[in-house]
Amino acid sequence: MPYRIVIADDHPLFRDALRLAVQDALADVIFDDAGSLKETLDILAATDDVDLVLLDLKMPGVQGFSGLMLMRAQFPLVPVVVVSGSEESSVISRAVSLGALGFIPKSAPVEDMQAAISAVLKGDVWLPENVDLGTQANAELDDLAHRLSTLTPQQTRVLMMLREGLLNKQIAYELSVSEATVKAHVSAILQKLNVDSRTQAVIAASRIDGDLADGAATRFST
Questions:
Q1: Which of 31, 88, 113, 166 is the most buried if burial means most Cβ atoms within 10 Å?
Q2: DSSP string computed for the chain
């Protein structure tokens, strides 16, 4: 049976390059291309035989690790390898904490990309050789990553919309639910993240981004 791999990146040229690298390493592969988080999730919802997602952390519909969080919450059995231009050890550590089975820097040579994809398809974890996650241990952020991983898919979506500054009624409209349902989700998010306000929840979600954070959380008020 051929492998089915989703390449989620908003740069067509990089998707083409990654596809060529995979084809040189694997004999039989079916590819699905996605240029946004929504396209990626739509493909996963419509296809039940995806073997691997190669996910860029920065593309339309994504804030930091929110795309990885939502994908892991909604499709926990689908392996995800992050392919990113961000190569900081803290970013790699958080990606692994949130469920990624591999991390490929975009600057990596083709041989490393091929080795990473082959390893994850065999059930292993692959990280760049120069990364030592042991030196990146941070008990507080590890606990936060664990708390974020307990959010349901809908709670993760609500948290993403809170980060965008949307009000409850706007979130309710976007998700086609009642405001009461949104309030219930917000309450559950606050409890799971062990925070007291929407602002603190947004700040917590931004902190997990580490070097990916864009300071968006400072735009919110209680």
A1: 113
A2: --EEEEEE-S-HHHHHHHHHHHHHH-SSEEEEEESSHHHHHHHHHH-S---EEEE-SSSTT--TTHHHHHHHHH-TTS-EEEEES---HHHHHHHHHTT-SEEEETTS-HHHHHHHHHHHHTT--B--TT--GGGG--HHHHHHHHHHHTS-HHHHHHHHHHHTT--HHHHHHHHT--HHHHHHHHHHHHHHHT-SSHHHHHHHHHHTTGGG--SGGGG---
